[in-house]
Protein 1
Amino acid sequence: MRCENCGAPLLKSTKICPYCKQLNDKYEEKPLKKLTEAIFEDKNTTDTLENKDTLIKKIVSLILCFTLGYFGAHKFFEGKIGMGILYIFTCGFFGIGVIIDSIMYIFSIISIVANKEN
Ligand SMILES: [Zn+2]
């Protein structure tokens, strides 16, 4: 890929273009994954500290999803402001979004905990 500002070749993992100091728009873009890989993506995390941090965030997200999920509280917590606003207006995607999110969080938490025991 290339920098959208100056056209210099960039890696996806590069946050700021070294040539023009422009923020790389594609920085956080992840390649399309299978659903199962997306759920268990935390398995690839080898850093235990980062793992613990992720686990805490997932647990807080799950609690927020259970309690204030219809207001998108967990989405705001994750920094997904757009999704959070959408959740407010649709009551958590008519409840379906909240249920799916809860399942995703539970799977993530199980995945992280299971990974720790290995
Ligand atoms: Zn550039």
Protein 2
Amino acid sequence: MAAGGAIVELQRNSPKWSNIVEGIVMLERKIFPKHESLARSFDEELRKRNSGLLYVEVNGEVAAYVMFSWPSSLSASITKLAVKENFRRQGYGEALLLEAIEKCRTRNVQRIALHVDPLRTPAVNLYKKLGFKVDNLIEAYYASDRNAYRMYLDFDAE
Ligand SMILES: CC(C)(COP(=O)(O)OP(=O)(O)OC[C@H]1O[C@@H](n2cnc3c(N)ncnc32)[C@H](O)[C@@H]1OP(=O)(O)O)[C@@H](O)C(=O)NCCC(=O)NCCS
């Protein structure tokens, strides 16, 4: 992965919890429009059982994060993936997504699903690069004028 940042899994009892969540909430506000942002509910989302967060910290600031959950044994989902603008195109997004896929794999789920706005070309390309397929287009998913692709990655039955 890019120099200057290791992937860390945020632990519920971590003394850094509020610091990290604060950093992520700031990025959420910056990167995502209101209706797509988890800024107001991030802490709550994260405290749910069956959810996890991986992040990369560079020089004391959160540079990138991915959030995922596994509500059932059938399917996990990637609920958020974002890289701060000045850290993009350095491999952080791909490294985080790969690690999140591995975390989900160890939960023995059969599939990972996610939603993404088709206009988010970098994200759609990244998901496709790591093997996600487009399932279908859901109209008016994020807002009346914003659609979503539902994408999925199936693990081979072993
Ligand atoms: C999508 C996002 C997470 C990618 O992070 P990143 O660290 O810049 O991506 P990486 O450097 O790891 O690139 C990995 C792959 O992503 C794709 N990609 C990344 N940026 C791209 C761009 N600007 N244009 C086209 N494809 C792009 C490519 O397939 C790339 O592989 P390649 O280098 O072999 O071409 C980042 O652009 C982002 O935070 N976007 C805004 C938030 C968002 O859309 N999140 C997803 C919806 S929840």
